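Researcher: Please predict.
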Amino acid sequence: MRTKILSLIAIVTLSFALNAQIDRSKMPKPGPDPVVKLGKAEKFTLDNGMTVIMVENHKLPRASANLTIDNKPFFEGEIAGVSSMMGSLLGRGTTTISKNDFNEKVDYLGASVNFSSRGAFASSLKRYFPEVLALMADGIKNSQFTQEEFDKEVKVTLDGIKSGEKSVTNIARRLENVLTYGKNHPFGEFVTKASVNKITLENVKTFYNTYYKPNNGYLIIEGDINPKEIKKLVEELFNDWAKGTIPSQDIPKPTNVSTTEINFVNMPNAVQSEIAIVNNIDLKLGDKDYYAALLANQILGGGGTARLFQNLREDKAYTYGSYSSVSQSRDAAIFKATASVRNMVTDSSVVELQKEITKIRYQKVSAEELKNVKEKYIGSFVMDVQKPRTAANYALNIARYNLPSDFYANYIENINAVTIEDVQDAAIKYFKGDKARIIITGKGIEVLKNLEKGDYSIKYFDKEGNPTVKPAMTMPIPEGLTAEKVVNKYIEAIGGKEKVIAVKTVMMVSNATIQGTPLLMTMKASAPNKTSQVISVMGTVFQKAVFDGENGYEESRGQRREMEGDALEKAKSGNALFEDLGYTAGELVRIEPLEGKNAIVLKYLDKEVFYDMATGLKVKAVETIKAPNGKEIKVPTTFSDYKAVNGILFPHAVGQKSGPMDLNFTMSEIKINEGVTDEDFK
């Protein structure tokens, strides 16, 4: 033991001695660029025109096959969605095996087999790969498109469309494509209820027989394989897949606007604005300035250290993230800068996004910035080369884009060759801040007033990309309508004043999840203004807030903070059971469309409360609070699924949104005049 201790001391001493010889005030000298050794890909072509690329990788006893159907984009028109429906129906039973037997066999082999309109994928252990590849080939060549499966897929598709109708993000992405490419472009069209209802089973079969052909196909097989054996296997499985003449379409070339404009899409339910600054570009993989464009974009908005992120998130706190991208395409490439921001800072965010785009176009980037992004790209490239599938994917790109055979061998050299001037030239060429669409999907009533003060003209579009008129910002409040009348209507709607007054205590228990973790919230209230709220996470109290009528406190993770100042006075004056009773002194500010209905908005202190004009029920509240940094934040809460408890209607679904985080509470228990004692408020 003594010898071991002495040996350990010697090692530690030596370590300190060695460290003492290192001058940590100086950066280590960079070593030479890594030598990249690309995996070797073998390639052959079947008689039907399908190109097969094979890459050996014996690290694991696994193999995979990835088929890419490399057709040119095509416009589906009135039956938009037919291609994706065809892809979904592939493999659901073939002429040789039923759907259930197919799936059971895949599961039994511990494999994965998937199909799409653009190809197919299969993966398994080496010993099962011939059998799994045969299943994939069977699904590709012999799928049976049955009416039963078609009807199921139509229903699934329609349900998906319906569920996305109120999604601000989904609508924003759709409109960005429509306005950037045009409705008559393959990249601009989208699937609608009408187009799905026009698709027939015959349309699906015709599409498959016309466009799903091997002569535009690339089959990548990678893993623990023997190329000679795989070649023989592929020939046996795919040679009888008949090639065909694939029709081509003349598609319109997207164009940019002559001068930058705002394209606004009104979404009354939006709590954030989705902003995208977009312009069309002509950029292909292998273009002379391709590398400069990549580096310019990385500096502008390529991640957490990029300019957009640092400005809009770290400096201004407008968003959780702001990014940009520059795509390459043989058909229609784009540049796009994006941010999801609070409604109240939409106009300011547009200013900052445009400021950064203008800056990188007309001011040269620093040598340090360029050095850092080069290192990032080279590092990512070197890491990618280590991945088993990389060599095959590189070989595929070389074939698809007609690149020189040494394209990736020279990748590091070409990245390093980019100069500061090259970056600026690429930014000027591809980031057209002066000829871009600023596409904003948001709540017009909250953001348009400030946007109209800016430098850009505003054009309005509906959710399908059709030009429309400016949305109504408000509707006139009916003559004689007062805050008191609105509150009284609400009280009558939930059960009437007599029943409400009879309530002395209320206990509510509700459940929610946050990032997959279950929450339990227990709220108790006693007239006139005693309250208790306890949030538990997996049985442990996470947060607690208590007010006994005179004093109160908040407790979180063992830290207690006494209630004081305005918060204390507000608690003393409030109504713990039915806070709306105190809103009679508020002000009616507007009538606003909300979820397809009209809501009267009542403002009381720092809160706006929305009541359904028809039912009188409270459907939403937006409270303005101050964050620890002093900035004002709007916190929206929604109320729905009203159910009677002892003759009084309570919302059983309460949702709250804070930034990108949604909390949706479901009431599991509500008790009136029971379950509450004075001990709950200590």
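Model: The first helix runs from residue 2 to 20.
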